[in-house]
Amino acid sequence: MTVPLKLIDKFGRHIDYVRLSVTDRCDFRCVYCMAEEMTFLPRDQVLSLEEIYEVGAAFARLGVNKLRLTGGEPLVRKGILSLIQRLGKLDVELVITTNGSQLPTMADDLVAAGVKRINISLDTLNPERFKELTRKDKFDQVIAGIDAACKAGFKRIKLNAVILKGRNDDEVVALVDFARDRGLDISFIEEMPLGVISEHDREEAYCSSDEVRAMVHARYPLTKTEEQTAGPSTYYRMADSESRIGFISPHSHNFCSECNRVRVTVEGRLLLCLGNEHSMDLRELLRSEPDEEKRAAMLEKALIDSMDLKPEKHHFDLANEPQILRFMNATGG
Ligand code: SF4
Asked: What is the domain partition of the chain in residue ranges?
């Protein structure tokens, strides 16, 4: 049964996709995401699994048709499988973005719980480089996780790679080959080098989607498709493979006019736009009303009202970026 969508903002955009961050913790320490020594949020500031479920269920009642669990690393949260099993029963497509490390043991359970699609981050196929980027020696575990996911029967698996010049731009074609060999999709994501976070010993530079696409195209001629997922990727196909190549270009292409999403941080802050601070505190609301039914009604009203806060567009611009981007593990990417 499809529920009529009640979340439409004042610019007429239909918000049918929600990203829920379920933890700020992670078993990796990627140089562009976290500091090596991290202080994570105290437990009482983080939404409980029950609270996250209530938020997800309220969005589903308002017609949202896709929920994505993010982190941190969502699969390291204690008890996460029980939450996934409950969310998997809602009338939504449930998807997860993961670093892959827990998939060797969890892939089958995720499929059984109703997770149809999964995005796995993979920036390099070089174990040494992987260790430098993530500060953890878990390359083999991640590859084993990807292979476990391939066997588990997800409807679609997509790899996500962030390419920076001087970091991994020499691996673009190798990553495409890795995806082709396994019949996976792969998306390349434009990102700013956040050199402030770590002690880089080499120059890393922004690499646009157009540049990455040219590298792939030189090896595998690409044809643009009109295929759309709920995300902002532009997809291309190769003549001789089922794998799709996606490009997510927040910097070089402005996709705000088609924005269909909001985010909820692990602290229960509803973020209406990643590039702006417009937000609403759902945690306070959840904890202010002990009666479950009343709380559910309050939550629905708040989510509908929040649509008026969604700004028309983000203000990413390369020169000012560091003022806007927070540690990504806190916002859920
Ligand atoms: S980028 Fe992802 S895998 Fe890496 S530290 Fe951040 S949350 Fe963990």
From this structure: 17-331
Q: Which of 120, 138, 329, 331 to mutate to test the pocket of ligand 1 (most atoms within 8 A of CB)?
A: 329
Q: Is the CB of 68 under 6 A from ligand 1?
A: no
User: Angle CA(319)–CA(213)–CA(175) in degrees, nearest 5?
Assistant: 105
DSSP secondary structure of 40-77:
PPPGGGSPPHHHHHHHHHHHHHTT--EEEEESS-GGGS
Cα distance from N-terminal residue to C-terminal residue, the chain: 30
- Ligand 1 center from residue 30 Cα (angstroms): 5
Kindly report, residue by residue over 87-104, the tens digit of the pLDDT. 999 999 999 999 999 999
The CA-based dihedral angle spanning residues 151, 113, 229, 221, taken in that order and rounded to the nearest 10 degrees: -10
Q: What is the pLDDT of residues 227-238, one digit of tens each?
A: 766 566 789 999
Ligand 1 close to Cβ of residue 111 (< 6 A): no
The fold for domain 17-331 equals: TIM Barrel (3.20.20)
